[in-house]
Amino acid sequence: MTRRWVLGAVAVACVLAGQPTAHAAPRNTVTVDVGISQVKIGDSLKQVRAKVGSRGKAGPVETMANGRPFTVYRFPKRLHVQIVSGFGVNAMWTDGPRQRTRSGIRVGSTQGELVDAVDVSCQALLPDGSRELCQTEELPTEGETSTAFYVEDDTITRIEIATLLD
């Protein structure tokens, strides 16, 4: 009897270990103003790699207007993560359709679907209105995180979450 109880407990533990925690978003989720595929603003490169794998390819080190160096890493499933020295992740974006908001908005969704599902304000980037930017924060201030949906010809082409740094 004791042996059955131990085997049953091990089986339950294995099943529970495979379940995501209540706080973790599913792997391909866009959590508006928080993150994409469990990557969050402020995460270190080590944390990012633990969440999405170590196969990210680093781009060249560049310098922001404020003098801080940063590197953009490209990960599978078209996830791009920008890591700023001394801060961690300050921006991430996807141009692939796998990542979705909880309401189903993804690259490929229409602007109408976006406006119905997410509280955004949209503005035209071109005079003819063929390109628009829809954001959760119209004019983010320093330290604020905002989600931007890039729209071309009524279709979302990119989803970006970023924090404005000084």
Record keyword descriptors for this entry:
nine-stranded antiparallel beta sheet, single chain, three-stranded antiparallel beta sheet, 166 residues, alpha+beta, protein yfey like fold
Characterize the structure shown.
The chain has helices spanning 2-17, 45-52, 111-117, and strands at residues 30-31, 35-36, 39-40, 57-58, 62-63, 69-75, 79-84, 88-94, 121-124, 131-135, 145-152, 155-163. The radius of gyration is 19 Å and the shape is globular. 19% of the residues lie in helices and 34% in strands. A hairpin with a 2-residue loop joins strand 2 and strand 3. It is an alpha+beta fold and 166 residues long. The termini are far apart. The strands form 2 sheets. Strands 4, 5, 6, 7, 8, 9, 10, 11 and 12 form a 9-stranded antiparallel beta sheet that branches. Strands 1-2-3 form a 3-stranded antiparallel beta sheet. The chain has a single domain, classed as Sandwich (protein yfey like fold), CATH 2.60.460.
